[in-house]
Amino acid sequence: MDERTPTNSLFTLRILWGGYVMAVFIFNIIARIVVQKSSEAAYPLLVQILIGLSVVELVAVLVIQAKMGNSLPADTSSIFVPKLLQFALAESVAIYGLVLTFMDGNTQRLIYFSVAAIAGLLIAYPRR
Question: Which long-range contacts (CB under 8 A, 24 or more apart) does 117-122 make?
Fold first, then answer.
């Protein structure tokens, strides 16, 4: 049997998806352990830019999903790169929250970014 069967590609995508989801939770654990509350607030403009960028990236996840449709084609290797792009776009939202948390120590903001990232990853979940 060929190594690049559709089931094998789907399984690989699901393993990668799980890794991206776990990374979001690991970001939160690291932030809780490492970050100390700071009296300095993050730059308001930077916060607004990262929130805007997060919205744009989550819309991109939705657009890519709409173009691919909800069901996978028989040859899942053809959608491998778009799925990885969706995963990376969704996870970057959590990374923005982590950066802001390291800057001002506000772990509550990271939770909001993480929930948005998980929502984007759920939209991008590779299903049959």
Answer: 117/24, 117/90, 117/91, 117/92, 117/93, 118/21, 118/24, 119/58, 119/90, 120/57, 120/58, 120/61, 120/86, 120/89, 120/90, 120/93, 121/17, 121/20, 121/21, 121/24, 121/87, 121/90, 121/91
